[in-house]
Amino acid sequence: MTTVTAPPPGKRRRREIGRAPQDTRGNWSTYLALTAVLALSAFPLYWMFVIATSTDEAVSQTPPSVVPGNQLLTNLREVFTMQDVYFTASLINSFIVASVVTVSTLFFCSLAGFAFAKLRFKGRDPLMFVVILTLTVPNQLGVVALYILMGKLGWNGTLLAVIAPFLVSAFGVFYMRQFILNSVPDELVESARMDGALTLRIYWSIVVPAIRPALAVLGLLTFVATWNEFQWPLITLNGTEFPTSMVALSDLASGNYVIYRRVLAGAFMATIPLLVLLVLGGRQIVRGIMEGAVKS
């Protein structure tokens, strides 16, 4: 009777390492499903563009036309020249608000996330629990108190009332903490501290370069959420000459008769900055999502 002996662990490991990687390419059904999902996701944007380039007759016809028209410039000219809408100013205001809030969120959330992840101080875990607990509270519950506070500060009707409440987010703090825990080794922080580096120096020279992908993801989410914010700007900026793009779109859609080609032409212009941001930072954003998935 012959006995079969197993190869030594070293040879087995070398054999496994040298094994050719499996083909992970999908079959035709995978590409078909992805194409269907992409088409369904892109169709609202395409339909918005179709209505934005059409006339009133083309919008109201049955069945509706699915081919873009040639009235985009005419519709955009009407949107930008309408009185009491201030659409040009609304785009500028939205860009200012979204940019300031995004930069502030990235700085404060990454700094707080670094403190919660790598620093030792009394009450750290209870404070982190409170931060996470605030995620369960709807923003609508604090609208009245926030409006009263902004009124006491004299900020209602100005961009400060839209910027100040969103300079830092609980989600951003939690997200940065989790990413820093997995991306920055404790030994690296301790060695920098032994070399005489101060806390802010460690944060700027070691932590920030390591979390750039996460900053890209958080920056995109914050910019898009701030740009699309509607409820609070409508409350505090209603009737002023400093609306944001979403408030201006609501003004376009108000009235007894809604001209949909104007509304969707304005929506098309308000969507372009988000599409440009996605194209410019798409690779960094995907990298940040994938790194977070692998490290978790």
From TrEMBL:
A single GO cellular-component term on record: plasma membrane
Region annotated Disordered, chain positions: 1-22
Keyword Electron transport tagged: no
Keyword Transmembrane helix set for record: yes
Pfam families: BPD_transp_1
The entry's keywords: Cell membrane, Membrane, Transmembrane, Transmembrane helix, Transport
Main location: membrane
GO process terms (BP): transmembrane transport
Domain of life: Bacteria
Sequence similarity: Belongs to the binding-protein-dependent transport system permease family.
Protein name per its UniProtKB record: Cellobiose transport system permease protein
Organism: Pseudosporangium ferrugineum
